[in-house]
Amino acid sequence: MLYPKKINAKKSNRIIKIFVIISILVAILLKTINIITSPKIPWANYAICGIIYVWVILLYSIKKNINIAGHVLLQTITISILSILIDYNIGFKGWSINIAIPITIIISNIAMLVLTIVSYRKYIKYAIYQLIIVLFSMIPIIFIYEKISQNIVLSFVASGISILNLTISLSLSFKDIKEEIIRKFHM
Asked: C-alpha angle 136/139/142, rounded to 5°?
């Protein structure tokens, strides 16, 4: 039986560089077409944001032995930043802060809860990512107190779900966490 040849690292790096160059050329082409055809509507910026998003996720995914929770965290941060950039480009209507970020936080917490339930024995691997998501979920509350966000309900729901998710995750794997702390600190 014949197996396909494995692409070596040098070839795969070359392929990635070629596609990065193609992506940059496409972004320049889109921006040029946008300036020539409809300069008042920045539609090319949205496409460029999408290209950047795909590359960030792709390059992160190519790495070996990456924790799935790390993907969830990266997706949460990247989608939040891109939604703010898109909102800013269309005149900042506030939907990114009022709707997109809280919904992204809720979805990432659901994903983290599923990861915890499915592989609760490996929760230690996800704990730091879960804590970072909890900290990130406090940003909508800060936006409310700074009078940047007007959607109080969705922001508090997102932060509440994040805290509840952390509590559920900790209770599901309390025994494993306790054993890990004892092992790490020689207690």
From this structure: 150
For the segment 77-122, what is each residue's pLDDT rounded down to a tens digit?
988 998 898 888 888 888 888 888 998 898 888 888 877 777 656 6
Residues 36 and 90 in one domain: no
Q: Are residues 110 and 31 in the same domain?
A: no
By C-alpha distance, which of 122, 123, 113 is closest to 168? 113
Token pair of 119 as six digits: 């592989």
- Domain's final residue, options 23, 45, 66: 66
Contact by Cβ (8 Å): 153, 140: no
Q: Count the domains in the chain.
A: 2
Same-domain pairing of 136 and 181? yes
Residue type at 100 in one-letter notation = A
Q: Are residues 130 and 143 in the same domain?
A: yes
**Could you tell me how many helices (H) and strands (E) the chain has, helices first?**
9, 0
- Give the whole-angstrom CA distance, residue 130 versus residue 54: 23
CA distances from residue 187 to 99, 127, 170, 173, 182 in whole angstroms, order as listed: 45, 20, 20, 19, 5
**What element of type H or E holds 145?**
helix 139-145
Give the structural domain span for 182: 67-187
Full-model pTM = 0.69
